[in-house]
Amino acid sequence: MSGQCLEMKVKIQAPSSGYKIKIEKIYQAGQTVIALCRVSQSEGMAAQAITGIEDSFLCPAAVFHGGVSTEVQYYVIGRSWTSPENNEADVTFVESDDAFQAKVKEAGGRMVFNAPKK
Prior knowledge:
This protein has 118 residues and is mainly beta. 9% of the residues lie in helices and 47% in strands.
């Protein structure tokens, strides 16, 4: 943790520059930090080339109860393509909000922070 904040940063590969990723909510399950991220596609033309897309912000450490790991597990909803595969070990793609909520419940997690709107 950097000072009084934990950096949240997710990056994945998308098939075009028309995609964006947004970190929406932060959860805590024991020592584990879990981030819910959502991919969206802008309307209109976009370059059809594999593109890294990312989002980041500093989350106040005060929202976490007890100590937490500096490792963050990122769950991404909204991926509509089958390739390229993601090379980031800390990113898991889930099909829906319900599937994500089931994983959080299984881990005993609870929401601690809504990410800032950009």
